[in-house]
Structure formats: structure tokens, C-alpha cells
Amino acid sequence: MTDKDKREPRAFVIEDDKVVETRTQSARKSRAAADIAFETAEPAGDLVVVPPSHSQTAARRAPWLTILLGALATLITMWAGLSVTSLIEDFFARAPWLGWAALAVASLAGFAAIAIVVREVWGLLRLRKIEDLQDKAARAINLDENSAAQAAVNGLTQLYAGRHDLALPMKELARHSADIMDPADRVRLAERILLPPLDEEAHRIIARRARRVTLLTTVTPAAALDILFVAAQNAAMLRELATLYGGKPSTLATLKLGRMVITHLAVTGGLALSDNLIQHVVGRGLLGRLSARFGEGAVNGILTCRIGLAAQDVCRPVPSREGNRETLAGLLRELVSFGKDKGDDTAQS
Amino acid sequence: MNVTDVFDAGRLAVGGLSDFATGMFSPTVRLGVTGLSRAGKTVFITALVHALLKGARLPLFEAQARGRIGRVYLEPQPDDELPRFAYEDHLATLTGEPRRWPEGTRRISQLRLTIEYEPNGLIARNTHGGRLHLDIVDYPGEWLLDLPLLSQSYQQWSATTVAASRKAPRAAHAHDWHALLQAMDPEAAADELLALKSADLFTRYLARCRQDDVSLSSLPPGRFLMPGDLAGSPLLSFAPLDIAPDHAPRAGSLAGLMARRYDSYVAHVVKPFFFGHFARLDRQIVLVDLLSALNAGAAAVNDLKGTLAEVMSCFRLGSNSVLTGLFGKRIEKVLFAATKADLLHHASHDQLENILRQVVSEAAARAEYRGAVHDVAALAAIRATREATVTQRGEELACIAGRPAAGETIGSTAFDGTQEAAIFPGDLPADARAALDGSLEGKLKFVRFTPPDLKDGTFPHIRLDRCVEFLIGDRFA
User: Fold this and answer.
1) Nearest residue on chain A to B393, judged by CA atoms?
2) Which residues on A lie below 8 Å from B426 (Cβ)?
3) Domain boundary assignment for chain A
């Protein structure tokens, strides 16, 4: 924009997709003074809130603990390396073939360790990417930012590029890529095309896990056991949801995800007053009268639903609008329909 | 409140009651397509009807994108007093050989489109079974200029019109009429021939002010420019006189005659037009041809702004309640659209929308105050261009490419309507106020293009889907 005054209106006549400038003051023959690149043609408005990530909510602390843990971990690794080396040397001293075998086993172990580390880092990076995507999408929707919208839509298409279950929606989305529309509309459109199949699947996952938790709690003889069951089922649900929305839930990523879900639950918990009421009525009231265990089971099931909804909020790459968000009431309807586990009833909207 | 006010309120209430009764079982949306002349009303209506009829690609129109729209068809003309909108003729003009834009509208016409859809709600499913009538009225944009006359007396109108005509850029085109104006004595005895001559010169002055290079908007009375079926009627044989706003004309004088004719014009032409078509709208889209005004310069943009503010003050905006539903509805949603957005690169659409916001700021503020929902959009109901980037001496220019219409010029290049060209129309200012203060003179030139080919049987468009969703999307509940 330095020589803005020079950018006056002008015309370029197109002959065989070559540009010939015609704004010639003199009687000179028009000459090819410019290149033209056609924009690739088609290949043939409410606010949202991003779930708070852990890094945003945790208070900044001095990094001494991290340094201590890091130093200790390094020390242990060095010790392990040293002892493995001396062990292999011992084997070589006894018999060379034994030494070679030990070396091979040790290399295999080292290779597996590296693979695990790569997988963990990959999982964490993917998690960060989804967080970033949520942020971009929210910026695009709330502030109508063009660059954020482009980044969000590109991120979404990258995230779901190889997914066979989304091949058709992806094709549909590609048809609109050359359309001129507002940034917020572009993200909303991508969301409306890509995410509904995933949302439906998420609904099924949460409902299935919640039913299972209810059933397990009801039939488990010992109280300590059902805590274990609930925890395991919830962790499994978390991984399923994360995988569904394009995450790579390795161990560390799942732990981080779990922390984010708990943070999100704590933040939104105050709003869920009516949900608590349901919990009281169902747990201590009606069902509790029928059977104390079944009442507890129902409460655990509802808890699982709530965790599932929070996890969905955290994993979904585009924050959902208040209006079409999955609700607890919608899930509870499924919770009481036992025995129809396979019947994916499409009563949900 | 005088007698006419009571009478007008009665008209509104009777219309409102009948709308309420029919609306229960056959819901109707009256879409007001508002726009001054050449804003693109006819093209918008044709494109909208065509897109809905053919099920065009409207990704942001949710009901259609989700496949909830069933059959869409044109209903036989419901109103026997009004001619039908010549949809087929306009479509033939747009797609025929050679492709042309429809001619300016000369008379009022109406169209009813019926949309069958899959309702979400239980009540909707059981009362009307998911059918929505969309009533659209097309009319010459010039007639819209008459609406502000409803609240002015002849003397007031005369004084403001004469005062405005003495300022630049109007004064340069008003010489002949001003000469006659000097010679006329308002208090002299009424003279029919003088009145006719004055009306004739006044009409020529208005017509001159409307041409492309001046491109002014505020040119009432509208029937002078587009008489419709009133051509030659005595209703049109008056003109402003050089009198004070509180002048009391003597009976039998020239001023008295003019005032009487002005009053009949308002009573017999403006009021029926307003109450027949504008007083019962549900939704409104205000099409603004900002680009022609920008072509002509800041004076035209400011004039457009003033005209829109005056015209929009005549509409009943606001949120509806049960009572207003019974006694005359208000317009709940207004969309201000800068038309012909395909004449510039989409990267400039944000700036265009910002300028539009400046131009309609008064009307938008009124809408907000009354509780009506409003929005602005850069719209091309039919997109005649594609986008291209031209690199010239290391500088990238965001251009639009297409076939410029015959007779268009840019710099020293004239187009004959067959050549294809990429046009760089200039940069829109980052600060929208620059469009109103005159610092842009000569830096912008928007060129008209010939209509595009149909693609998959439908017209390409820019944001038509967004407009449809905003205007009627919520009626497909």
C-alpha cells in the first residue's frame, strides 16, 4: 500500500487466457505487460465459547518441580543405560553368542521405547492442534476473521483427510471451497457438513458407556469394585471420543484430556443446577426406592453422561453453538431404554 | 390525530386482521424488496425465484441444505388487481442470446412462490403441513422516492427542492428550469400552460440528475421519472415554486393550483401505493447500488445516504407482538444489501460492507431502536464475473474477469460487449468515511458486465443463500 495513489482503475483484455494491457496512453501496440492467474474455479451469524484448556487455567508456578523431575528422570535413564551396558558386557564375557542375543533384545527394547515416546508426543501434538483449531474456529465465528476461518477450515480438512467415514461430507465441503462467503459462515458450513455424523456417533458412544456403567454398578457386589469400573469405562469413553473427533489418545494425551475434561466440568458445573435436580430425583427418589443399587447405578450413569458431554466439548474441533448442543436430557432418555443396546434409535435431533 | 390518520390506521388494522386470519392456516411471508431505481430489484427477484425453483446451490440456506425443502412452485397470481411479475420474460432476457439485464421496471407487479417443506414442529405439521407462501412485489424504484412526500406539505417540499437544486452538483443541470422559476410569480393567476411547461422542465432536470455521471438519488416525485400508467395525467402537472415553507397561497393563484395538485398526487398516487404494498411487509431487503454512487463520487454517495434515511423512515420497523400481529404487522428483519458485489474482488467485500454501514447508519439505528433485527451484506444475486489476480510490474492486483457490457469504458479502453477482460476497479478505502468525504474522487471505476452463463442450470451468485437464510430461514421451523 506504499504507492496507493498509483493503484488506479485499469483493464486488461484477455486473449486466450493471456493478458494484454490496454491502458496505453500512447498509440503503441498493446503488449503483454502483465501475467494473469485465474483464481481456481470449483473443482468441477451467535457466539461460541472454547472449553478452557489446562494451560489457560493453571496458575503459573516456578519450574523447580519440573527441573527436579527432569533431572531425576535423566539420572534414572543414565543408570538404566549404564546397567544395561554392563549387563551386556557380562554376557559377552561369558559367551559371545549370549552377548549378541542380549544386545539384540536390548535394541528391540530401545526401539519400542522410542516408538512409545514418538506416539506420546504425536498424541500430545495432535491434542494441541485440536485445541488450536477450536481457538481459530471460535475466533472466526465470534469475530468474523478471515484468516482464522481459512486456518480453521484448512485444519478441519487436514484433520479428516484420510477418514473413510467422512469421505462423502469431505467431497461436499470441497464443492463449496470456491464460494464467496463470510468467514463465520464458512466455518459454520464446514461444521454443519463435517461434524453431524461424528456428533451422532459421539451420542451413541456416550449413551452406550453410560448404560454400561449403570448396569455394572447395579450388579457389582463390592462398592470398591464399581469405582474401578466407572473409572475404566470413563477412560475408555474418553479415548473413544477423542479418536472419533480426530485425536490420537496416547496415554499422556488421555491424561491431559482427562484433566481438561475435569476443568471443563468444574467451569460449567455451576450451570448444571437443573441436571443435579434430575440426579436427586432419579438417584435418591424414584429409582432409589425400587432398589438402592439401581439408584446408585443411575447416578453413576448420569455422571458418565456429564463427563461424556464435557469430553465432547473438549474434543470437538469446532465449539458447538448453545442452540444445537447435545443435552443431558437427550442422553437420559436413552439411559433408561435398557435392552435396546443395538437399537441406535434416531430419536435425537 | 386528524381524520386521515384515523382512516390510515383503520386501513392498516383491516389489512392486519385479514393477514392474521389467513396466516393461521396458510403462512405467508411478504418480502419487501426495496431499492431505488437500478438497484437491482428485478434481477434479485428473478434470481431468488430461479434459485428456489431450481434448487440451486444455497449452502447457507439451512432448510434447503439439509434437504427439508420439498416442492417449490409458482402459485397463480393471488391478487387480481396487480399484474403478475413477468418472471419468465426476465429469465428469457437474462439467458437469451444476446444475454442482457432486464430493462428498468415500468409498473408494479407481484409474484407468489409456494415452498413446501418438512416442518420440525408438531403444530406446524398439523395446521398447514409445511407450506409457506412467499409474496414478492416488484415496482419501479423511482416510486419509492415518493414515500417521504407523505409527511410534507407542498410548501415544505417546494422550499427544500428549490434550495437543493441551487447547490452543486445539481445547480449545473438546472439552468433551464431555474430561468423559468425566476420568471414565474407564485401569486399570479393560475395558468395551465405555465404549470405544464414548468413541470416539463422540472422533469428534465430530474432526469438529467439521474444519469450515470451525476447519479443522484433524491429526485422526488418518482412518477415524474417513471410515470407508469399516469403518463400525461394532470396529477403530474405541477412543479416546485420558489416559495417559503410557510407560504399561504391565495385561492386561484399559481401556487394554489400547484399545491392542490401536489395534495391530489399524494392522496391518489402515493398513499394507495404505500398502503397497498409497503404497510404490511414482514421482511425487508433494501438493495443499495453503492457502486454506481461510488463511480459518480462523494456527492452521489451522500445523496444516496440522505435518500435512504428519508425513505426508510416511512417503514414500520420493529418487533412484533400479538397485538401488532392483529393491528398491522411491523417489519421484524431488515437486510441492507450492497448489490452488484461481483463487480469487485471478494477481498474488498468487507470494505464495501463498511461503506454500506455508513450509508445506511440512520436507518439501521432506527431499526435497532425499534427492536428490528438488521444486518448488512455484499450481495450479487447473479454473479457475472470470476476472480483473477493480475501481476503487473511485481504488483499483484486483485481483479475480476468477465465480459464488460457494451459501451462501458475504463481509462481509454472501450468495450463492445464481446471481449473478455480483467478489471481492476481500484482499492476501496480501509476507512469507510473516505467514501463520503470526497477523498476518493476518480480512484474507483466499476464496470458493468453482461450476464453470465448458467452453470448446472442455475445462476452463480454471491451470498444469495446468506440473504435467503437471514430473511426467511427462521420461517421453516
Assistant:
1) A34
2) 7-9
3) 10-39, 54-175, 196-335
Cβ distance A38 to B388 less than 8 Å, yes or no, reads yes
Cell numbers 549404564 correspond to: A82
pLDDT in tens, A160-176: 988 888 999 999 899 88
The residue in chain A having the minimum alpha-carbon distance to the alpha carbon of residue B409 is A11
Burial class for A28, CB neighbours closer than 10 Å (0-12, 13-18, 19+): exposed
* Chain B nearest CA to A54, separation (Å): 35
Torsion over CA: B165, B167, B169, B174 (sign): positive
Query: What's B51's domain CATH number?
Result: 3.40.50.300
Distance between CA B356 and CA B337 in Å, rounded? Answer: 8
Distance CA B59, CA B50 (A): 16
* Measured distance CA(A225)–CA(A213) in Å, rounded: 12
Mean pLDDT of all residues belonging to chain B? 87
For residue range A19-30, what is the model confidence (pLDDT) as tens digits? 654 443 333 334
Please work out, in degrees rounded to the nearest 5, the angle formed at the alpha carbon of residue B75 by the alpha carbons of B74 and B76: 120
Of A39, A181, A192, the CB nearest to B386: A39
Phi (first) and psi of residue B455, to 5 degrees: -115, 120
A21–B389 CB contact, under 8 Å: no
Angle at A72 between CA A66 and CA A78, to 5 degrees: 135
Q: Nearest by CB to A33, from B388, B392, B411: name it.
A: B392
Interface contact flag, B412 A175, Cβ < 8 Å: no
Which cell goes with B286? 433494501
Contact at 8 Å (CB) between B206 and B219? yes
* Cα atoms in the Cβ-side hemisphere of radius 13 Å centred on B283: 19
**Interface residues of chain B, partner chain A, Cβ below 8 Å:** 57, 59-60, 62, 65, 346, 349-350, 375, 386-393, 395, 397, 399, 401, 404, 410-413, 415, 419-427, 442-445, 447, 462-463, 465-466
Q: Kindly state whether residues B371 and B393 are assigned to the same domain.
A: no
What is the rounded distance in angstroms from the CA atom of residue B249 to the CA atom of residue B256? 5
| Spatial separation of the C-alpha atoms in residues A333 and A133, rounded to whole Å | 32
Per the CB < 8 A criterion, the answer to whether B150 and B220 are in contact is: no
Q: Is B118 helix (H, G, I), strand (E, B) or coil?
A: coil
Number of domains in chain B: 3
Q: Is B393 close to A33, i.e. CB distance below 8 A?
A: yes
Q: Evaluate whether residue B177 is within a structural domain.
A: yes
**Could you give the C-alpha distances from B73 to A214, B54, B86, B115, in angstroms and in order?**
52, 10, 15, 7
Kindly report the pTM of this predicted structure: 0.82
Structural domain that includes position B192 = 149-267
pLDDT above 90: percentage of residues in chain B: 40
Say which amino acid occupies B64: Q
Asked if residue B443 is part of any domain, the answer here is no
* Residue A74: CA count within 13 A, CB half-sphere: 6
Answer yes or no: do B210 and B164 share one domain: yes
Q: State whether B179 and B234 are in the same domain.
A: yes
Instruction: Please check whether residues B290 and B198 belong to one and the same domain.
Output: no
Reduced to 3 DSSP states, what percent helix, strand and coil does chain B have, rounded to the nearest 5? 45, 20, 40
Q: Where do the DSSP E strands lie in B108-212? A: 109-117, 131-138
Both B277 and B364 in a single domain? Answer: yes
Which chain A residues contact residue B411 at CB under 8 A?
Answer: 9-11, 22-23
My answer on whether B136 and B159 are in the same domain is: no
On whether both B137 and B79 belong to a single domain, the answer is: yes
Q: Which of A102-111, A317-326, B139-148, B443-452 has the lowest mean pLDDT?
A: A317-326
A39 → closest Cβ in B388, B415, B421: B388
The reply to whether B258 and B236 lie within a common domain is: yes
Nearest neighbour of B427 by CB, restricted to A4, A21, A37: A4
ipTM over 0.95: no
